[in-house]
């Protein structure tokens, strides 16, 4: 994790070779829930296809690998 001023950067590396076949297509949902210093939550994702954040909706899976 890298923090600079008001920015936070997180790098994640996952070796999927043990659980997913190389020829399998992947759909990735990138999302997070952030709690600020005042304990308020905000919801972030590549997309929110509904009025309320719902990280289980497949419409929000925009990144296909």
Written description of the protein model:
This protein has 65 residues and is mainly beta. The chain has one domain (18-64). The chain is built from no helices and 6 strands. It has strands at residues 2-4, 7-9, 27-28, 31-35, 41-45, 63-64. The strands form 3 sheets. It has a two-stranded antiparallel ribbon with strand order 1-2. A two-stranded antiparallel ribbon has the order 3-6. The model has no long low-confidence stretch (mean pLDDT 80).
The portion of residues assigned to helices is under 10%
How many independent structural domains? Answer: 1
**Number of separate strands:** 6
Instruction: Give the helix tally.
Output: 0
Strand order across the biggest sheet?
1-2
Residue ranges: pLDDT <50 for 5 or more in a row? none
Strand content: 25-35%
Q: What is the rounded distance between the termini?
A: 24 Å
- What oligomeric assembly is this protein in? single chain
Reported for the largest beta sheet, the result is:
2 strands, antiparallel
Q: What number is the mean pLDDT?
A: 80
The secondary-structure class comes to mainly beta
Q: Radius of gyration, rounded?
A: 15 Å
Shape: flat
Q: What is the H/E string?
A: EEEEEE
Name some characteristics of this structure.
two-stranded antiparallel sheet, single chain, flat, 65 residues, mainly beta
